[in-house]
Specification:
Number of strands of chain A: 0
Number of helices of chain B: 5
Strand content of chain B: 5-15%
Largest sheet of chain A: none
Largest interface: A-B, 11 and 12 residues
Radius of gyration of chain B: 10 Å
Strand order of the largest sheet of chain B: 1-2
Shape of chain B: globular
Order of helices and strands of chain A: HHHHH
Oligomer: heterodimer
Radius of gyration of chain A: 18 Å
Helix content of chain A: over 70%
Distance between the termini of chain A: 17 Å
Distance between the termini of chain B: 10 Å
Largest sheet of chain B: 2 strands, antiparallel
Helix content of chain B: 55-70%
Number of strands of chain B: 2
């Protein structure tokens, strides 16, 4: 219920501004962190993709009055976030073992790995969210 | 957790939509609670009990009882 009360147009705008500042700051100051060009590009892509997803999904949810952000919805989102986060950590740890293995010849640049992490995490979250939605 | 919300609600002549609106939750949430797939928070349970003229312990009870 708290989420329903809090997620309104004002929150949507404020979060968008915060995300915009974060993205702009990283775009401006990211290169000075000297993390490597491809890694910085990967993080930039991930951040901009996340910002876009929030903007589009938030806008759609605000327009659809039938979708109610009550405590069940909040609990489903929380559960899906937690499950997908730990699944992503697990898959990431397995994946890095595969990458370092001599048996499998697989090489990825930092940008590709970052893009894979962001898009994989997003897809995983959506799948888990759908499963949680159907089962609760 | 089992509950007697469906019986209480129909006895009060309320639809799931109406009960949901009065409690400040969606119809889907009422459906999930009635079906036993979602256990509401204490605050929502107390609100539902108040709306249905009952108490939380009369509305919700453990599976083994």
């Amino acid at each position: 219920m708290r989420m329903k009360e809090n997620f309104n147009l004002k929150t949507y705008i404020v979060v968008n501004i915060v995300l915009a500042v974060m993205v702009a700051a990283f775009l401006l100051f990211g290169p000075s962190l000297r993390m490597g060009e491809s890694f910085t590009a990967g993080v930039d892509t991930g951040m901009v993709a996340g910002w876009l997803v929030f903007t589009v999904a938030g806008g759609v949810l605000l327009r659809r009055r039938k979708v109610s952000f009550d405590e069940r919805t909040a609990s489903i989102f929380g559960k899906a976030s937690m499950v997908s986060f730990w699944l992503l950590v697990f898959l990431g740890s397995v994946f890095q073992l595969v990458l370092r293995s001599d048996l499998v010849t697989l090489s990825l640049s930092a940008a590709e790995a970052m893009a894979l992490l962001c898009s994989g995490g997003l897809v995983l979250f959506l799948v888990v969210l759908l499963v949680c939605w159907k089962t609760s | 957790m089992k509950n007697s919300i469906r019986e209480m609600r129909t006895a009060a002549g309320l639809t799931q939509e109406e009960l949901g609106r009065k409690a400040g939750v969606s119809r889907q949430t009422i459906i999930s609670i009635e079906g036993g797939r979602y256990d509401p928070s204490l605050a929502l349970a107390m609100k539902l009990a108040g709306l249905l003229g009952s108490t939380v312990e009369n509305l919700f009870f453990p599976e083994e009882e």
